[in-house]
């Protein structure tokens, strides 16, 4: 079967470069599945898991926003941050989740709710990817 060369890069460097048969990502417009010979595409990504499939293997990455570009069977994901499940510190993600939840529940004027909401989504995404 034909494959896609998938590369995931963050400001901290490359996270992954490997061949897969299918990529499923959550764009801001909805879920997108990419198979070989997909038409060229650029899509902004949500804070969500990216699913990478090859045969019966499926692996998930926690991807924090960014952009996915598809061209000539190359899928490039440039993200603010992205982690493989084995690289996620579960305790840190739990603490980040609790911190964000406390901020969202507080009634103080100086809370940046959007920032807390995004932190909550990043932490929840990491915990979901560990659970897969
Ligand atoms: P925290 O509040 O714990 O820093 P965050 O969501 O604000 O979480 P980010 O700004 O998204 O963190 O990421 C900063 C860097 O830390 C990135 O390199 C990211 O991959 C890494 N990172 C964040 N949380 C975790 C985690 N739970 N496990 C491993 N790496 C993490």
Summarize the structure.
This protein is of the alpha+beta class and 132 residues long. The protein is built from two helices and ten strands. The protein folds into two domains: 4-83, ATP Synthase, domain 1, CATH 2.60.15; 89-131, ATP synthase delta/epsilon subunit, C-terminal domain (Single alpha-helices involved in coiled-coils or other helix-helix interfaces).
Keywords:
single chain, 132 residues, alpha+beta, ATP Synthase, domain 1, Single alpha-helices involved in coiled-coils or other helix-helix interfaces, 2 domains, 5-stranded mixed sheet, 5-stranded antiparallel sheet, 10 strands, binds adenosine-5'-triphosphate, transport, CF(1), ATP synthesis, hydrolase, hydrolase activity
Describe this structure in words.
InterPro entries: ATP_F1_dsu/esu_C_sf, ATP_synth_F1_dsu/esu, ATP_synth_F1_dsu/esu_N, ATP_synth_F1_esu_C, ATPsynth_dsu/esu_N. GO terms for molecular function: ATP binding; hydrolase activity; proton-transporting ATP synthase activity, rotational mechanism. Belongs to the ATPase epsilon chain family. It holds the Pfam family ATP-synt_DE_N. With 132 residues, the chain is α+β, with helices and mostly antiparallel strands. The protein has two domains: 4-83, Sandwich (ATP Synthase, domain 1); 89-131, Up-down Bundle (Single alpha-helices involved in coiled-coils or other helix-helix interfaces). The protein is 27% helix and 45% strand. The chain contains two helices and ten strands; from the N terminus they run E-E-E-E-E-E-E-E-E-E-H-H. Helix 1 packs antiparallel against helix 2. The two termini are 25 Å apart. Bound molecules: adenosine-5'-triphosphate (ATP). The site of adenosine-5'-triphosphate (ATP) has 13 residues, from strand 10, helix 1 and helix 2.
